[in-house]
């Protein structure tokens, strides 16, 4: 007696294709429920320490930056479109637009840019303070390691500022 008949049935009762489909479903279920997965953590984190992050925002069109972003306010910190906690605004430095003016002696002097298109254009350096996990000598906020050059966002009640990390000080 043959194991598989002319219609492709095993023992004359079960289709080989149906048996293969059931086997695939069982393997998928075993893979989902019994095989452990990764934790999704980016870095092995250590103890929490205080951290200061300098963020630079370039070319922001804003009318009254002093009234919008204030020292002492809390703001949401977003790294690579992932919320990474809340940090306190420790310091805010606003740079008005300037142009380089060459001098007759060959030196360069910075003067205020009086062009109308730069009237509301500002660069800002925002110092943020908070606590972060420490891993491999760097700060980790919300499963993202904070490094110089990482694109970040700062979101408050009336603003969403996009910039990049300029400096990270752990234990400051």
From TrEMBL:
InterPro entries: DUF4330. Keywords: Membrane, Transmembrane, Transmembrane helix. It holds the Pfam family DUF4330. The chain crosses the membrane at residues 16-35. The keyword Transmembrane applies. It comes from the Bacteria. This is Pyruvate/2-oxoglutarate dehydrogenase complex,dihydrolipoamide dehydrogenase (E3) component. It comes from Gloeomargarita lithophora Alchichica-D10. The lineage of its organism: Bacteria, Bacillati, Cyanobacteriota, Cyanophyceae, Gloeomargaritales.
């Amino acid at each position: 007696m043959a194991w598989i008949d002319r219609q492709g049935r095993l023992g004359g009762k079960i289709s080989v294709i149906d048996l293969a489909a059931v086997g695939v479903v069982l393997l998928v279920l075993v893979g989902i429920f019994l095989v452990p997965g990764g934790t999704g953590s980016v870095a092995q984190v250590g103890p929490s320490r205080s951290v200061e992050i300098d963020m630079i925002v370039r070319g922001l069109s804003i009318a009254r930056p002093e009234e919008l972003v204030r020292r002492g306010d809390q703001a949401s910190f977003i790294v690579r479109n992932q919320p990474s906690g809340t940090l306190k605004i420790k310091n805010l430095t606003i740079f008005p637009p300037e142009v380089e003016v060459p001098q007759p002696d060959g030196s360069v002097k910075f003067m205020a840019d009086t062009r109308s298109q730069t009237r509301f254009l500002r660069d800002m350096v925002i110092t943020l303070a908070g606590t972060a996990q420490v891993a491999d000598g760097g700060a980790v906020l919300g499963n993202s390691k904070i490094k110089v050059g990482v694109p970040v966002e700062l979101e408050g009640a009336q603003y969403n500022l996009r910039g990049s990390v300029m400096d990270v000080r752990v234990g400051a």
